Amino acid sequence: MDKLVKGFLKFRTEVFSKKKEFFTRLSENQAPRALFITCSDSRVDPTLLTQTDPGELFILRNAGNMVPPYGSMQGGSTATIEYAMAVLKVPHIIVCGHTDCAVMKALLNPEEVSDLPAFREWVGQAETTRRLMHEHYTDLKGDDRLIKTTQENVRSQLDHLRTHPSVALLLRKKQVDLHGWVYSISTGDVWVYDFEFEQFTSLLDETYPRLKTSS
After folding, report:
1. CATH topology of domain 31-204
2. How many Cα atoms are found within 13 Å in the side-chain-facing hemisphere of 191?
């Protein structure tokens, strides 16, 4: 805790005081650039990854970057998505998975979380991903299988987003774009989903500007 408290004191005395006008403006309203849905994993920092300032990302975090289909679970995730779309009119939604994800590991090896009933039930939100891996990717092993699982899960959660009325309405009006990302913790790279070619491509790739989003 000492490190966290010292960090706050440094923020209050050195950062906040120098940017007081900026934080005053933030206190009056917000207009985020994107709804960023990602995992609770401590190694994933959305603002560090995108180099954004406070107020630029509306962040939804949970284990496995899940988006429960609308109506299946009326909870914090659904409320966050609804507010971002219906009130804030956020123009982009990013679902960002990551390498070495514990939820994806549990999906592939459910026996490892047999003593975690709540966690095990939550992993069920990725049932589509589990079935896809079982039926189409039986040849993949080790890290390749885990990465593909993570990618397919991002695609599945993008599908779930479309079941939310607030998202579907803005998609119909072409007022929101969907994006699928997978962040590599070890390399710092991000793979982005190309809806036209149905594959993930590195954001570092020179062809990235032509990638299609879903709108």
Report:
1. Beta-carbonic Anhydrase; Chain A (3.40.1050)
2. 19
